[in-house]
Amino acid sequence: MSTLPRPTKSTLTPAGVSFFESRPVSDFDAGINSSTAWTQANPSTSLSDDEPEDDEEETGQPARALYNFEGKVEFRELTVEAGDELEILKEEVGDGWSLVRLDKNGEVGLLPQTYYTFTSDFVTSPTLEMPPFTRRREPSAQSITPRGSPKGEKETLLIIPQHTGEWFPSFRQSLLGGKSLNRFSSFVTSGAEEWVLKGSSSDSVPPRSAEDDNSDGEDEGSNRLSRVGMGEADRHFVDVGPAWKTKVPPFRVLVHSPSKRTSSLSGAYTIYSVTSLFHPTAQQDAQDDEAPSGSPMRITVHRRFSHFVVLHTALTRRLPGIALPPLPEKQYAGRFSDDFVEARRGDLERYICRIARHPIARYAEVLTFFLGCESDLEWKKQLPYHLSLPPAGPSFYAHVFHPAFNLDAEDAADAVERFDAHTRSVGKGVQSLRNIFGRVREARTEMSKAERLLSYSLLSLITSKPLASAPMTGISEQDEEDNSRVRGLLNDDNAWCWRDSCQECLKLTKAVQKTSETLQNVADLYDDHARRTQLATHEALKSVAHPSSMYAGVIETHRSTLSRYNTIVSSPPADEEVAARCETVLNTTMAEMETYHTQKLEDFRTIVTDHLDGEIAFYEQVLARLKATRRTFDSPQYEAGADSPRQPSMYERELENPRLTAKPLPQPCPHVYDSAPMRPVSAAIQEGVGMIFGVSSVGRASVFGKFWRP
Fold this sequence. Notes:
Strands 4-3-2-1-5 form a five-stranded antiparallel sheet, with no helix packed on it. Strands 7-6-11 form a three-stranded mixed sheet. A three-stranded antiparallel sheet has the order 8-9-10. It folds into three domains: 32-128 and 163-181, SH3 type barrels; 206-389, 2-Layer Sandwich (PX Domain); 406-470 and 490-656, Substrate Binding Domain Of Dnak, Chain:A, Domain 2 (Up-down Bundle). The protein has 19 helices and eleven strands. A hairpin with a 5-residue loop joins strand 3 (97-102) and strand 4 (108-112). By secondary structure, it is α+β, with helices and mostly antiparallel strands. Helices cover 41% and strands 9% of the residues. The longest helix is centred in the middle third of the chain and has 55 residues, at 409-463. Keywords: SH3 domain. Residues 31-62, 129-153, 198-230 are annotated as: Disordered.
């Protein structure tokens, strides 16, 4: 079997040079494409559903189209003809695209930089003729997306990410089942292709000023996090396996105590407490006098949904080579209902816990900042720095270090096929499990209804009061009316007997009444178990759903890199430097596959054990109540029933109107990658899309327009 060659160049940081000063520079914008460039070019796009949008009109520079270009509406691309006058609103929005306004109709959209030139660049030439020509663009699957055409020197605009990279995530997630509208492969957008072909030799991280370093000790939270081992945030190591080397021990994150706040600028919003629990090592525990020995260190900060968006955006841009969990989608209606706030809290906790569990993401600089910055003033001061960090692109792979000959090419090809098939199978199985579990919860509510009906029937029997809507098998209406006139249904002690002062029937009546009341308690337990305990398990199943979609980029990058490597080694003389860089990418993707394997073991073990523990606790409560009721039929409790007359049960009043209709079961919020019907807030989103495109109705401006028709 062929083995990948050993790298010939060291990628270690030179001695005496700080890590931030030695980071490579790359103009490759990882993760930005024609579908996501729109949000990068619109800084007015809100960070979250809590904040208003700014409708301020943008102005740009005049330009003219060089070629005919037929854009695709679903990707917000313009259709232009050669010679059309344009206004360039944003020259660089990523991957060679610009945000452009067409002067003849005012339509705004995306256009490749190579298809226009600024008007000031034209030179008058009476002999110059432009023949009709339409350039055909091919999907960039084999090469880097072309850069801009030659133009005059212009000031580069700094694009601050304001979004997760999706201009309407609920559309992409629910209508397309989580599939990206990106025309470019993950091999391109992650920077892996540029790294394989060119490497990375320049710094991509802007230097931080002395003011940003916070030498005064104001950033106490970050300093506290540094004591538990946070550091070397951009240097990643792969052990034999391949598997990521753990540099920071795992820690737990809780999202809790949601509360509603109001701001004069952004209106009402929900804020969550985020508590990180670190279990210090023996050495740290000996040096730390703030907490008793063995107790975890706690850091609590307050974050809103828009802050999680900032975290997700920064992680996506700085860690393009790993599979990050999707951020919960936005909510445009009912954001402050108790059910939604609790569901959002659980989704955010699962999201941040998966980030903290990843061996690479959990020591990312932006995560340290997110979890450790306790000062609102310091948060606002440091946030622009993290927002302005450019995508890592190929520099991410330049900072991945691994042993030489750490994997075999044939094994790598076999592993990715098996991994792809396995994740697809797991996704289908989990989706089926989620559906079945929903039916199990419904069955518990039906069991609650059955237990309650049985309770009412027993109570109706011993009190001789009819149960409304209950089937009276074998008894006609006339017989029922005649029986109601008969004396002797209950005696003077309110016992189920025609004889007065019958102590034996009094004891039996009280014991059966106790049984009826216990069955009501059991019915309540069934209903509560389905609504709370099983709902938590149902929600937890989302954390293991759709692994194929989550790791699609890793699989695609792995296959493309392996294909490039096979091409290199099969055409002598082989370029050992390119082959070595292929080895780095493959070590990264194989380490991600190993991370999934580890997390899958933890996830399913936790989900199943939590389910079993919940079932055991539920049945123990039911069993305890049934055993206590069974003892009422034995001495001395049974004999004590004759000491006093029977008191009416609190449930007798419900016989005329039994509680057999329960509220609908709360369902888990849809997973980001779920294929689901359009949410009932479509009208509000449609209006927002119309505002983006500057039209009153979506109509032609959106591929999703047909879904808005009643």
